[in-house]
């Protein structure tokens, strides 16, 4: 079956051309064809669904090796295999794939794979946008940390089957009756369906929150000490050495403990705490000090970068927060 037939952007047997196309759509992949008589004839199709992209890639009757390094802290690629088989190494796990199986690739980590006669849907996602969607569902008062997906997805679970059916439905709709409609309301609804099911049905660190379940997570005592120290001294000049000393552990243990507990490094956690302090002031006293003064008070010296971080965390600029609460 040819998926997204009316959205084909490339059909080629040229490896370099295919590499460039995939790099522009998703991320850089170093592809290499194995075997002298391999029939490499790649097809790439892609369609925008509001602000996420749905692709289908197929590599013909060939065996490929794939190497891709870490390159994007925000990006995720969700694969739904439509044909072929293979195995990948990613995030310290071995992932086997076959028709109807799936796996989640975090672009912040490298991957290596071997693929035979491979084709798949690929959904490009943003962690920040998924986080903002979660916040819009559960409210701003609920504490949500870094987003982590389990790379391995059990293909026998009902949730995965529902999600796969939805992806096929969206692909058929965008390739058929909606192809000429160009209605942003409809495409936004399609995007919302995919995002909601991705967060609620696939194994990830927000799944319990999105589904209204109580989240209980055991945090090591030394990570609690570091967390409490950050909250108590967020207005001071802090470095990794200060936090590590307060926790009573080494840098490596601190970094791993924060990634396991919160899905982010200690310094990233500190930045989020500071952003929340700035936001609380902007909401409570919108016409007091200037945004720059408040930001500098909480350790932000580069205003352009501060505005980007603020928007990434809360889905709005500081000026928008002031207007809402003025």
From TrEMBL:
Q: Does the keyword DNA-binding apply?
A: yes
Q: Which residues belong to any copy of the HTH araC/xylS-type domain?
A: 224-324
Give the keywords, sorted: DNA-binding, Transcription, Transcription regulation
Give the source's domain of life in one word. Answer: Bacteria
Q: Where are the transmembrane segments?
A: none
Asked if the record carries the keyword Ribosomal protein, the reply is: no
Matches recorded under Gene3D superfamilies: Homeodomain-like (1.10.10.60)
Q: What's the protein called, per UniProt?
A: AraC family transcriptional regulator
* Lineage summary: Bacteria, Pseudomonadati, Pseudomonadota, Alphaproteobacteria, Rhodospirillales
State the organism of origin: Thalassospira indica
- Quote any Pfam family the record assigns: HTH_18
């Amino acid at each position: 079956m040819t998926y997204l037939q009316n959205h084909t952007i490339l059909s080629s047997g040229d490896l370099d051309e295919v590499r460039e196309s995939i790099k522009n759509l998703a991320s850089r992949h170093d592809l290499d064809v194995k075997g002298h008589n391999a029939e490499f004839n790649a097809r790439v199709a892609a369609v925008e669904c509001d602000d996420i992209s749905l692709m289908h890639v197929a590599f013909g009757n060939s065996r490929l090796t794939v190497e891709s390094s870490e390159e994007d802290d925000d990006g995720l690629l969700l694969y739904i295999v439509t044909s072929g088989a293979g195995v990948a190494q990613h995030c310290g796990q071995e992932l086997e794939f076959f028709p109807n199986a799936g796996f989640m690739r975090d672009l912040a980590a490298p991957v290596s794979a071997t693929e035979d006669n491979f084709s798949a849907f690929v959904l490009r996602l943003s962690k920040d946008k998924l986080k903002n969607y979660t916040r819009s569902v559960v409210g701003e008062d609920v504490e949500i940390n870094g987003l982590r997906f389990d790379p391995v997805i059990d293909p026998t679970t009902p949730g995965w089957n529902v999600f796969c059916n939805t992806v096929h439905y969206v692909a058929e709709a965008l390739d058929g009756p909606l192809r000429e409609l160009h209605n942003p309301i409809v495409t936004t609804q399609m995007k919302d369906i995919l995002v909601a099911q991705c967060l609620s049905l696939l194994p990830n660190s927000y799944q319990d929150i999105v589904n209204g379940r109580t989240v209980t997570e055991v945090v090591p005592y030394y990570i609690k000490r570091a967390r409490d120290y950050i909250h108590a001294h967020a207005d001071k000049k802090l470095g990794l050495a200060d936090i590590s000393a307060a926790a009573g552990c080494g840098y490596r243990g601190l970094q791993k403990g924060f990634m396991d507990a919160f899905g982010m490094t200690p310094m990233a956690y500190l930045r989020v705490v500071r952003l929340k302090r700035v936001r609380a002031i902007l909401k409570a006293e919108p016409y007091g000090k200037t945004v720059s003064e408040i930001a500098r008070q909480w350790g932000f010296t580069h205003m352009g970068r501060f505005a980007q971080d603020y928007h990434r965390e809360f889905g709005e600029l500081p000026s928008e927060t002031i207007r809402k609460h003025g």
